[in-house]
Design goal:
Elements lengths: L1 E7 L4 E5 L4 E6 L19 E7 L2 E7 L5 E5 L7 E6 L3 E7 L7 H13 L4 E6 L6 H18 L2 E4 L2 H4 L3 H7 L3 E5 L6 H8 L25 E6 L2 E5 L21 H4 L19 H7 L5 H12 L6
Parallel strand pairs: 3-5, 8-9, 8-11, 9-10, 11-13
Antiparallel strand pairs: 1-2, 1-4, 2-3, 4-5, 6-7, 12-13
Helix pairs in contact: 1-8
The chain binds guanosine-5'-diphosphate, magnesium ion (MG) and zinc ion.
The site of zinc ion has 7 residues, from helix 7.
């Protein structure tokens, strides 16, 4: 029996079978992901083989993945956490207000996507809350990410204007991972795209503007037969997994073109002489903002394991 994991709670997995029924299943035995230590061996989006034993459904095999996305486990040191498997693309919902999404968060997410070769799209939401100056900032960020880096960007105010056909089209025929800080509007978006889902939408706490945790487990929802959306639990921090210092620049698309042109082959593009990346920065081909993100990722503990 084969199925698709559409929800995982840690020890139980909801599996959609080929006959369109959903069963709750458990794992038997150990599943390994290469040589990594992972906190959860199976993720939403995994295709699995099931056996029915004494009326219980047991997952006995994971079908080879097209891709997967992991981050460092926020709870367990030196462990990774599987976020999802077999996705076609990922949308990151970013907000300048309530809560503020840092560029660092956006860039870390995009770097992770690059590392797993998953196309990324940025949706700037809650534009209704912004004054003129802040709207200019969104415009500027959209310009950077689209023109200088190459990610498609959209602006939305989901609660005020709903979803346009243009936004709906993004999700058509694909399996899309939706990420963003808790409170950014993930559930609101999914409810608009798939009204039957009726996901609980959080009250944004005015006090901290941090947003309240309502979704705890990743879950897959179907817009139609070939279009699925994966909601990820409120991710506050995305610690990169398994990206080595020298690799990092490869995951900044705007830097890729210049790699190999530095004087030193092992250049980390910080203070080395004859660095082509620094030159491109001077020429404005790489933006200060993105270069700053690069440096902070390079220096962060994530890369010193
Ligand atoms: N002003 C404004 N509020 C929004 C918008 N989109 C979502 N919200 C509100 O933000 C809060 C958090 O949304 P939710 O979808 O639960 O965020 P999630 O944590 O990412 O799933 C809810 O109160 C939504 O009504 C928007 O475009 N503008
Ligand atoms: Mg939510
Ligand atoms: Zn260099």
């Amino acid at each position: 029996m084969k199925g698709l994991v559409i929800r995982s709670t840690g020890s139980w997995y909801s599996v959609l079978l080929e006959d369109t029924t959903t069963v709750e299943a458990r794992i038997r035995g150990k599943f390994k992901l290469e040589d990594k230590k992972i906190t959860n061996p199976i993720a939403v989006g995994d295709y699995v083989v099931l056996e029915e034993i004494n009326g219980e459904y047991i997952i006995v095999e994971i079908v080879d993945r097209d891709n997967y996305i992991i981050r460092q486990s926020p709870r367990k040191k030196h462990h990774d956490h599987l976020i999802a498997a077999n996705v076609d693309q990922a949308v990151v919902i970013a907000t300048l207000k309530k809560p503020r999404t840092s560029l660092g968060f956006i860039d870390r997410f995009l770097v992770t996507l690059e590392a797993f070769r998953i196309p990324g799209i940025i949706l700037f939401n809650k534009t209704d809350l912004l004054n003129e100056e802040e709207l200019d900032e969104v415009g500027y960020l959209s310009f950077i990410y689209e023109q200088k880096v190459g990610y498609k960007c959209y602006q939305t105010s989901l609660t005020k204007e709903g979803v346009s056909d243009k936004i709906r089209e993004i999700f058509q025929g694909k399996k899309t991972l939706v990420s963003g800080h808790s409170g950014a509007g993930k559930s609101t978006l999914i409810n608009l795209l798939i009204p039957e889902v009726d996901q609980k939408v959080a009250e944004v706490s005015n006090f901290a503007n941090k947003g309240v945790h309502t979704t705890t487990f990743a879950e897959m929802f179907f817009m139609d037969e070939d279009s699925a959306i994966i909601d990820t639990p409120g991710i506050k921090e995305l610690a990169l997994s398994e990206i080595e210092g020298e690799e990092l620049a490869h995951y900044f698309p705007e830097m890729r073109a210049f790699l190999g042109e530095c004087k030193f082959h092992n250049c980390q593009h910080t203070n080395e002489p004859g660095c082509r990346i620094k030159e491109a920065l001077e020429e404005g081909k790489i933006t200060e903002e993105r270069y700053y993100s690069y440096l902070s990722m390079l220096e962060s503990d994530d890369n010193r394991r």
